Amino acid sequence: MSNAQRKAYLNVQRGQFLIGVIVGGLAGGLLGVWFVLPDVRTAKNGFVFDASVEEVWAVFTDPASQAEWRGDIKKIEMISEAGRRQWIEHPQNGPAIQFTEVYAEPMKMYALEMKADGAFTGQYTAEFQEQGDTSTIGYFSETVKLQGLFPKIMSYLFVNQRDFTRTYCLNAQAEIERRRVAGTATLP
Questions:
Q1: Where are the domains of the chain?
Q2: Do the strands 86-91 and 135-146 form a parallel or antiparallel pair, or are they unpaired?
Q3: Calculated CA dihedral for residues 48, 174, 176, 81, nearest 10 degrees
Q4: Rounded to two decimals, what is the model's pTM?
Q5: Which CATH architecture is the domain 40-182 placed in?
Q6: Alpha-carbon span 43 to 29, nearest angstrom
Q7: In whole angstroms, what is the distance from residue 164 CA to residue 158 CA?
Q8: Mean pLDDT per 10-residue section of the chain, whose length is 188 residues
Q9: 155 Cβ neighbours under 8 A, 6+ residues apart
Q10: Checking DSSP bridges between strand 135-146 and strand 109-116, what pairing results, if any?
Q11: 106: number of CA atoms within 13 Å, CB side?
Q12: Do residues 147 and 120 lie in contact, with contact meaning Cβ atoms separated by under 8 Å?
């Protein structure tokens, strides 16, 4: 073997070794992420609405209208209106999410189960407390169990549950105002 051939052979060997180190490092990093990041994420948040509890309740328990006032939703597909209502939320980005009502105590508490096939399952609870005639405090809790490495990584990189809840509440407040102006708000 000539010197030129030996150098070429060693360069190929070094390249293969470097590729092996990179691939091994990436695989080790992904396994590290898998074991270090928790599978369950929980967020709790509060929000004060400039609205009666009846107005807040009317917006929060009207899933069919959400595509009209939430910019992050393409469409809402109602599956069942009888008993425990079910619907599928089709967001602008991300997987479709199926919701099922599990509990509703009018003007006080609203609880849902949710699932996005292959991505997560979870629970959402909203509790409302009237503060006089013109404001309502909402307490929100969301817990999701992530399924698989890719959903876990994407969730931790791109989903801030507290910010999502705050944006949802701001959009709900704007919808309450819109309904008031249109004369379609539920008033006490």
A1: 1-36, 40-182
A2: unpaired
A3: -100
A4: 0.79
A5: 2-Layer Sandwich (3.30)
A6: 26
A7: 11
A8: 71 70 63 71 95 96 94 94 90 93 96 94 97 93 91 84 92 95 72
A9: 41, 120, 144, 146
A10: unpaired
A11: 3
A12: yes
